[in-house]
Amino acid sequence: MSDDERTSETKKPGLLGRLFGARPTAPVEPPPATVAPEPEQKRSWWRRLKDGLARSSSAIGEGISSIFTKRKLDGNMLDELEDILIQADLGIATATRIRDAVGKGRYDREIDPEEVKSILAAEVEKVLTPVARPLAIDPEAKPFVILVVGVNGSGKTTTIGKLASQLNAEGRKVMLAAGDTFRAAAIEQLQIWGGRIGATVVARPQGADAAGLAFDAINQARAEGADVLLMDTAGRLQNRAELMAELEKVIRVMKKVDSAAPHAVLLVLDATVGQNALNQVDIFGKVAGVTGLVMTKLDGTARGGILVAIAERFGLPVHFIGVGEGQGDLEPFEAADFARAIAGLGE
Question: Which residues contact 183 (CB under 8 A, 6 or more apart)?
Fold first, then answer.
């Protein structure tokens, strides 16, 4: 069969067409293209935050609903509430404060679960407001050296990349130092981030001395007029004395170049580790002089309340939180937004 015959064969009408007569169909006009309005950034971040904290807020909200639906308030109900809040890792002090606030003047009457959530949000916001502080870059310190520390898998390298991108967008000249010399993948990852934003990446072969790299990176950042130097470090367990000693060495060597360096030490915490995060803040704070916190992976746990317990116990600034892997999923920490999201309330 020729190509023309094959083409005409495929054009023959089907059985229904032969019975009832095939009718030519008019071409369907595509609908006019519509462009959805861009949501406001605040609204967009709120949605990502609320969705990211959904596991935490659901665990708390379901517990509150089961306790307070159609029951008159008594001491046993408050004990149950306190237990739920402790299980959500909000910490004993905060859980007790919320318990007392809910019970005040409400005994022997029904209390709506939404009212309990509102009280919870208000009490959490009181704890978090003093620590919700932005990362301040001193323009007089040039380069402003930021050392990023944390355990394996906490998200340090990704956080550095996202932060570098944000600082670059603000018009700052950023330099990166691949101080996680144990992992070739971490070095490569920083080089990719540097390529995206046009930032110099100071790197050495895998296994090189991290302290020596820090020394070179500060000198190079000075020579190139960088505004900010972000230095990665190898992930290390807080209970490994030799690794913590190496971190102390990195800081000592930094101070030989600039007595004020590092100007900020950010501890990146993985929210999924729960109570272990408290120990990390304690040890890294003593060894590295942590000045601020970044909490990642809040979307991967039902225990996002650990951030509240950390704020209550240590009072360290919380600069950023992360609820996903995307560039827009690391944002400055806002106490009121976090409090309402973890309580399961609307904007």
Answer: 206, 234
Q: Report the b/e string of 226-259 with b at 16+ CB within 10 A.
A: bbbbbbbbbbbebeeeebbebbeebbebbeebbe
In the beta sheet, which residues pair with residue 267?
Answer: 149, 293
Of 208, 186, 284, nearest in space to 240 by CA: 284
SS3 174: strand
Residue 12 pLDDT greater than 70, yes or no: no
Strand order in the sheet with 318-322: 200-202, 174-177, 228-231, 144-149, 264-270, 292-296, 318-322, 330-332
**What does the pLDDT look like over 104-153, one tens digit per residue?**
999 999 999 999 999 999 999 999 999 999 999 999 999 999 999 999 88
- Are the C-beta atoms of 132 and 308 separated by less than 8 Å? no
Hey, CA dihedral for 337, 340, 341, 345, is it positive or negative? negative
User: CB within 8 A of 140, min separation 6: which ones?
Assistant: none
Containing H/E element for 156?
helix 156-169
